[in-house]
Amino acid sequence: xxxxxxxVFSNPYASLNLLLSPLFGxxxxxxxxxxxxxxxxxxxxxxxxxxPSPQFINGIxxxxxxxxxxxxxxxxxxxxxxxxxxxxxxHVGYISGLKRFTEYYTSVLCFTTPGDxxxxxxxxxxxxxxxxxxxxxxxxxDILDTSLKVSWKEPQxxxxxxxxxxxxWEEFNRTNTRVTHYLPNLTQEYKVTGLTALxxxxxxxxxxxxxxxxxLSASTISSGVPPELPGPPTNLAISNIDPRSVNLQFKPGxxxxxxxxxxxxxxxxxxxxxxxxxxxVQELPNEPDARSLEVLDLNPYTFYRFxxxxxxxxxxxPPSQPSRKIQTLQAPPDISPANVTLRTASETSLWxxxxxxxxxxxxxxxxxxxxxxxxxxxxxxxxxxxxxxxDRLEREFTIEDLxxxxxxxxxxxxxxxxxxxxxxxAVHGRTRESVPSSGPTNVSAFATTSSSILVRxxxxxxxxRNGLILGYKVVFKEKDSDTAPLFWTVEGxxxxxxxxxxxxKYVLYxxxxxxxxxxxxxxSSSPPILERTLDDVPGPPVGILFPEVRTxxxxxxxxxxxxxxxIILAYQITYRRNSSNSxxxxxxxxxxxxxxxxxxxxxxxxxxxxxxxxxxxxxxxEAAEALVVTTEKRARPQPTSRPVVPQEDVxxxxxxxxxxxxxxxxxxxxxxxxxxxxxxxxNWTVHSASVSHETNSYIVxxxxxxxSYQFRVKATNDIGDSEYSVESEAITxxxxxxxxxxxxxxxxxxxxxxxxxxxxxxxxxxxNGVLLGFRVRYRExxxxxxxxxxxxxxxxxxxxxADFTSPYSIRNLTESSLTQYELDNLNKHKRYExxxxxxxxxxxxxxxxxxxxxxxEAVPTAPPQNVVVQSSTATQLDVTWxxxxxxxxxxxxxxxxxxxxxxxxxxxxxxxxxxxLPELGVKLKNLTGYTxxxxxxxxxxxxGDxxxxLPTRGRTQQAAPTAPSYIHFSxxxxxxxxxxxxxxxxxxxxxxxxxxxxxxxxxxxxxSKIVTVDVKGSSxxxxxxxxxxxxxxxxxRIRAKTLTYGPEVEANITxxxxxxxxxxxxxxxxxRYGSALxxxxxxxxxxxxxxxxxxIEARPSDEGLWDILIKDIPKEVTSxxxxxEMLREGVTYDFRVIAVNDYGYGSPSxxxxxxxAQKVSPFYEEWWFLVVIALVGLIFILLLLENQTLSVSNxxxxxxxxxxxxxxxxxxxxxxxxxxxxxxxxxxxxESSSLTEKPSEVxxxxxxxxEYEMDQSRQKTHSFVNHYISDPTYYNSWRRQQKGxxxxxxxxxxxxxxxxxxxxxxxx
Length: 1308
Description:
repeat; transmembrane helix; transmembrane; Striated_Muscle_Regulatory; mainly beta; membrane; 83 strands
């Protein structure tokens, strides 16, 4: 475990170091020098050392760590952090709180933001000697009236070399009787003599070193009375509950005839159940008379339950009864988030990460735990900003809206509903370099010649530089021109002026200046500066045509010069015959507004040459010449020849087009027009409509590389245009270097020494050829020279970016289809710049905008291994796993995320449990019983989350089900009801059955009967109850069972007809004919709705229960005939009729007169009839013997038309087969066809579940059960039947079976 001392020695120059030290870098490569360590007392060591050479620190010197560890415990290191001291050459620091008289190794290291440097060579020392601790195991033996023997053991904390022991004894509270002896260091027992019988003595023992006497161990004892084991304390009470302490009052238990040497307090912490582990939390020694004690070092906002023990010289008492459960008060967090790191996210944002507080450090309600982030510009006293994140599990935040290329100081603290915890140690980060957000100041322009302008500018304001200025660009174009602006680049930040040359004469220019950084061009200065170049002599007039030509005169027209180079003051026309001397020319000067001129007095059929020139204040300019023939026979020119492009004149973006002119039609060609089209589908486009008539070739530029074209030409004279020439052959321009870079989509850490670069290649239009591959350029960014460079920018104009960057390394990727690449073998804890370009056969295109990435941190690339899920309880699964493979961890694993969800319900039920410690197991609690869960685990480190493991399946154990979802009552009569219920919403296991309990809400006739029925199996979910009393409210309770019973659902129902139900029909009377009975009745009051049907109930007259015999009798019917075979022969029955409407069952009619089910035998079954038949038969036989053979055949057939009823609803008693009697024969079933029961597979002692089987000889079984009858024959009469014969039911609904009827109770 890492022990952090609370003392950190600082100095007032620490902030100066943060301003002058480099920002990023690696870990130091050498330890501090001249390290010395010496013990200054028994618990403190003094260190001295000198700082490493700055060139080996490799980053910001964040300070030093003083280390100390015991010889045998090298993994338990005490650490004290000391901030750097730049004032003194020798640094001093201390570690206190060490163990006394203990040997330690000591060392010192220097650390930077990325991590710790190497330790200095360990030095061995021992802390000073001190007084010892208390002796151990003080005990008394051989206790006599005048003597006893005292024994002890060496102190656990010797704190030096023991020189001996001191023992003293005195009568209790009489110090004047004290006797003292000093014993050698090897003696650990002493016989005390000369005691007075039955007297209480106080005996004290202490160890000694050269530093003096140690802590006393004391106990009281009565001479002649041996001590015993004490009893437990009683009457525990808790008061003064604070965040970290409570006051515990108690009543001491039996002391065992000696003084209590120590009180022990144990506690259950964070109590969930009753079986939590008891942990020792407090000891109070040498206070035998204590009646209360303060329990310290508790955790705030935590549940505790306490118990106590008391200790005497014999031993420890049993524990007391536990106290009540209490919760300590809330308190602000004690610690700050750990592992705080800050990384550059973008030009205006920083990425802050930390390890969240563990749950036991919240010190308050978890719902109000969060983190406060504070940030400000490094070195700035004001402008402190903060942001609060109210999510206790959050571990990162992106700080937005920062200034570009600015260093910030950031710290974070935990907060809860009570207050804030301590701030973390400040971390520093710089936003990424960007382009300047404004142009240079004080831009000016001055025209020096007719084709040059001198441009000057100042610095970009420091707040807007957003990086290191690498140079400037002058942006200029003609005012009000649609052409793209031109750029004049000035490399380096040393020059702040440039001469623009090659400009147009007497042209007004818009001029702006921008600065650029490594990232790109910034904003241009604003507003644009306007400056005009000086004037000059003009260019030649253009567009000379002769629209009118006669044999003796011509008229010509023109346009002003394309380059007037000033203000046109006049035009001058000179003309003569082409064959004459120039001295014979005619000269005429025209006004500047003239655009035409007519020359007369010419000779017919002659060729004249005209020269036209313009004048500015700088003089006459270049002349334009044109020939004309004084004839009236002019015509349009003929097309030129097919233009050709020699292959040697084909370039990437231009070709040389040549042709032969056709006939000019006696009118000289004034100009040519050149058109082109891009193959295969483009239209013809004019490239130039002013190609000089004096040339037969033309350079067609502004073409696309590696593209096929065709060209054509037409000539124009004074009469008009020729036809276009025949198209040239298809010409393909050459390849050129690509003119666009790939777009880098992302650069993300992949491992601790590699990054994954993803990009999008440029479009085909910008490849300018066949793409052959990509080129990756990368280099480390050495920020350790950053601040000195910024200073030299002002004082030394020669500074540039190359002064503090390493040259690029290059990787050539020859696969043109790539869109990502892992750039590996990089150095850890370095920031890299990465650029990407494409190349073809001609060369390489421009590089992309640089992307920066910090190498050394990457998310795990593999999931945790061997995930195992074990079922612990009905609500808990235990999950274990192994960490990802070491080569895939990419840094220290900080914790794990456990995702779990119910099988096939991931979207609806997925939950997350986060472990912020690299533990390899977790207990998932509060789950649903008997539910299959899928569990997936992911590891995370400082860089982020790794991939999840494949889901692993686990199922919780069975638990008690929830309550049945509902209770529903139907077919309610005065004495019966059909009860149905719904399955539990959460079964939490396999439903084994249900328990139904019902009882009257008030006693009936002074007796309260509680009936319990256990129904085995998960279905059916209903039961018919028939033993109710009329007009009584009953309470029904049902609960389901898996391994155990779950909670109940209950409802009340009152028997008897409901409001609106029909009244009783008239009393039925019975007519009998042979083996059939017919019931007759009259209709009663129909109630609030028409009668829908009738029901006939029957019961044995000897106090049997009413039960439905015939269920669905049409409403129009007032009589019903049933066969006696439905009834048990010899049993007397009562019948009654009930009307039914939409409001339910009505009141029953009065019972019919009792009638026996005894059959009347027909005459042919009487004995006398059989005797007569026998005699007659004998006479016939004798006659036949005498006369002839007489054959007589008589057949009688009596079909069996009725079949047995279904089994009845259950009784409330447990019946056994030993009680079966056949003396009760009741009802045979009525005929019906609406019920089919299932075959039985249940033992005879439990009853059959469904289909009934019977022997023909045992058909006559009754259908009714009296729940309270003492003789169970009624219940068993339908149970013992031969299997193999089934019969249709008498009812129109299925009936559930109680497989075990568990209890019957009555109360009066």
